[in-house]
């Protein structure tokens, strides 16, 4: 099982949207191979998913049913293969909670860029193929590979990959959130679909 975590602040707007949309897409590509969960650095325990995020998630094909916010600190004992942070501050918090995540935690928009870079480079060590063994090996090793190409992104551009927080703002803030987040998720899914069609023994 490949275990992924999405992280934001309250765990009611951005990270559950990413969690459920990623899960739906990955289930379509590789049924039963991925488990995506979410958490918040200051999770709003006892709340449901934010209504406006939930509405946008449903429209995109995800299901918000049963979401319950979780505190990041309480779930970092799990050996996640990748942590998808909604912003650089959340990535830093995940690494602080679990230093082993240093090469496994990325802002989700940056990861979409790095995954593309790896897939487009025939010399990269990215594992290709759609069989269960290849998919598992790809995602178990993708964090280290992504860390090798991360240096191509200027340090001053890091916060340009943050998904804006819409909480308690107007509807257009939720539109901006989705306009940043949904394309990143679709890009990850599209790249995964592409490399899944490629020969595991070649490129």
TrEMBL record:
Its EC number is 3.1.3.48. Residues 2-128 form the Phosphotyrosine protein phosphatase I domain. Gene3D superfamilies: 3.40.50.2300. It is an enzyme of class 3 (hydrolase). The active site is at residues 8, 14. One of its GO terms (molecular function) is protein tyrosine phosphatase activity. Keywords: Hydrolase, Protein phosphatase. Pfam families: LMWPc. Coiled coil: none annotated. PANTHER family: LOW MOLECULAR WEIGHT PHOSPHOTYROSINE PROTEIN PHOSPHATASE, LOW MOLECULAR WEIGHT PROTEIN TYROSINE PHOSPHATASE. Belongs to the low molecular weight phosphotyrosine protein phosphatase family. This is protein-tyrosine-phosphatase. It comes from Neomicrococcus lactis.
